[in-house]
Amino acid sequence: MKVLVMIVGHEFNNSCSNNIDILNNYLCTLPNTTIEYCGISNNDDFHNYEGIINFKYKVVNPKFQLSKVCDFINEYKESLDYDWFIKIRPDMELLEMFSFDILSDISINARARKYCGPKKIKYGMSINGPDDWRNVGDCSYDESENLVYLDDMFFIFHKNVIDLGGFDKVPDEFQNESTQSIIWRNRGINLNVIGINLKNTKYNTSSGDLN
Q: What is the domain range of residue 152?
């Protein structure tokens, strides 16, 4: 298996170096797996993490998060011979390794930002309860799944999603979790909510449980 990790952020701050080290240590435990890295930042500040990882790709792009990823994939599409892609922000600390067995190879796999449906998933929400400072997430139970907005801090997808058009270029307009999920749904891409035990070290917030 071959995996490309895309570290995407406004800046690659030294304060997040430990997050990158932890992520790399977890990924290095995967058997029979080749891990390579892409850095996409507003600035040419990749050197802040190059003592920990080697970047195969280094891209300066000041656009919004999804535009950054889409621009990169479209520019390098013919040479991206990876099975899986991970997108993560530098300020996210992975608290435990996730399993590739829970992933769908025709979906965007991520925690939920907003959700209404039947699933109960440990670490399935990007907010930790109703008192979370952002107060923009929402989770409620329904017998059928009728609302899914995925979190954009950490998501995983298979090369199949690229082939399905999930990362064709997008207009350089305001993007948040809602607009990104709407774009993917309009392109016929499934949104698969999974549990990922993460901590945002910038705001000191952790994953919450879904339903």
A: 2-210
